[in-house]
Amino acid sequence: MARTQLEAARDGETTPEIERVADRENRDREFVRERVAAGEAVIPANRNHGTLDPMIIGADFATKVNANIGNSEETSDLEGELEKLHVAVHHGADTVMDLGTGSDLDRIREANVAHSPVPVGTVPLYEAVKRAGDPEDLTTDLLLSVIEKQAEQGVDYMTIHAGILLEHLALTEGRKTGIVSRGGSIMAAWMEAHGEQNPLFQVFEEICGIFREYDVTFSLGDSLRPGCLADACDEAQYAELDTLGALTQVAREHGVQVMVEGPGHVPMDRIAENVERQREVCDGAPFYVLGPLVTDVAPGYDHVTSAIGAAIAAREGAAMLCYVTPKEHLGLPDREDVREGLAAYRIAAHAGDVGNGLPGARDWDDALSEARYAFDWSEQFELSLDPERARSYHDQTLPGDNYREARFCSMCGVEFCSMRIDQDARAEREEGELEELNGETDLAESSAAEVNLPPVGTHETGGDLDREYPRPEELSADD
Prior knowledge:
Function: Catalyzes the synthesis of the hydroxymethylpyrimidine phosphate (HMP-P) moiety of thiamine from aminoimidazole ribotide (AIR) in a radical S-adenosyl-L-methionine (SAM)-dependent reaction.
Distance between the termini: 23 Å
Binding site for substrate: 68, 97, 126, 161, 181-183, 222-225, 261, 288
Enzyme class: lyase
Oligomer: single chain
Keywords: 4Fe-4S, Iron, Iron-sulfur, Lyase, Metal-binding, S-adenosyl-L-methionine, Thiamine biosynthesis, Zinc
Strand content: 5-15%
EC number: 4.1.99.17
Helix content: 40-55%
Order of helices and strands: HHHEEEHEHEHHEHHHEHEHEHEHHHHHH
């Protein structure tokens, strides 16, 4: 059996994936190998994901952003899901998670893997429940069968809800919002119905064997994450975290890469505590956080409430941020929601990297500031996180190419533009024309990682667009 990225790194091997990651992060290859070998960074790269452009997740590297996509019973359409994948990659998603719970799950998953240049994650428990018909009818054989099939299909990382235990359930009784994780609620329902321990916990070592064969990365699910500020940092959340720390060690002993998922709703003053505790309990395994949302009062704007927490978490050492869209708590996101969520989270991730002083991270900011002061509108647009949005907003009030040379925008107008006033005053002090304003920052020479340089979304979705994927009725019960 071929070695996993973790095993190869431990043996001193610099794999092709490590070489590619080192190039993308502008880091020494040996440094990358050491971090992977220590389990403090992961490279999700299933052997069967042929269109993958490898990336790395770890606190020592640029903060990454995941975009959740997927269908529901109300919306099940292969073309629509591939469109979401394209929008996510175009707007800078470093990974995508297919959280589909509707129809055509196999067909859509295979299409996503075939077309995605970024790692694809899943929650296999969802498909297992679909097959069982009821959470109480889940069996360990069914769970293992679904996990192995998805691994064979090329899924790069999977959320496994193995940390919630029978003895944890009583700890949730006093919560305002109970168990808000879909996977967590399913496993809790199963344990209460059977009076037995979590089946995913019971077969965890067998899952490790499957993951090692395909080099799938664990994303250990936080089944008891808080769903409101009142439940943050409670006994239930931290009891499960202790279990996740133990499971991290088991997975590493089997040569399998691990990252650990983190809380959803946390007040600002306790985010650092969450990051520090996870890194200690889970021995430095990359922390993958949802948000956190720092207030509960803004349905429709939770991409904002969560991006605030995400920026703080990134500054404190979270390795990957799971985006939240404006539709959070309200409905299934569409392509515009995906765009809004990714913009908010790319900002949060980049701000965290700048705050942490990652090599070259601020060069992008400096280059755009220089273009702004020089009134080089075209350069500003090209350097923007979302060039289409920046160009559109400018042109809504000052249309026409002649305004691309103007020394003002419609915010202040020509008479009150502070930068124009400042430049004119400088020119007068210098008794003549102000010297040509040339940018000093050369992004081509920047030491920044690719994700901290424009343009965002440089991947192109790959795969065979004309490939025929099987319909559900064409799949046997064993597929």
